[in-house]
Amino acid sequence: MSIDEFEKATMADQSGKKFQQDEDDGLLFFHTHSLWEAICAVEKFYECTIYGVLDLQEVVENLAIYDDKYSTVPKLTMLEAISYAYDKVDGSYEYESYLDYIQEYCDTHGKL
After folding, report:
1. Same domain, 61 and 25
2. How many domains does the chain have?
């Protein structure tokens, strides 16, 4: 089997769908589409549903509704807070539960 034949054989998943090969570095799609457009494209392609996205910008905007001090939390601290919340929430998929733990982390580690 030649390399071209191998590439063509691996460009399809088990359902027989063909992958569209990018002509760029593969990141162009993500630079030209929003997170939600990218997720919708992934869901459509893989015939799945993705739930529970903790988008940094959206988390900051939602926390700032409660208190504007969260809009000044450093990006690294907020990413750590999101990771902390992800590890703490067990079995609950309510967005507010994650926000509560993110607030807790920012209040104790963010020096607010």
Report:
1. no
2. 2
Structure tokens at 42: 């992934």
- Residue 87, burial from CB neighbour count under 10 angstroms (0-12, 13-18, 19+): exposed
Domain holding 87, by residue range, is 56-109
Q: What is the pTM of this model?
A: 0.66
Is the residue at 36 inside a domain? yes
Spatial CB neighbours of 62, under 8 Å, sequence gap ≥ 6: 99
Over the chain, what is the mean pLDDT?
A: 80
Contacts of 12 (CB under 8 A, 6+ apart): 18, 19
Q: Are residues 60 and 105 in the same domain?
A: yes
- For residues 33 and 62, membership in a common domain is answered with no
Q: Per residue in 10-38, pLDDT tens?
A: 444 445 555 555 555 556 666 777 888 88
Residue 19's pLDDT is what? 53
For the record, the structure tokens of 67 come out as 């208190």
Asked if residue 86 is part of any domain, the answer here is yes
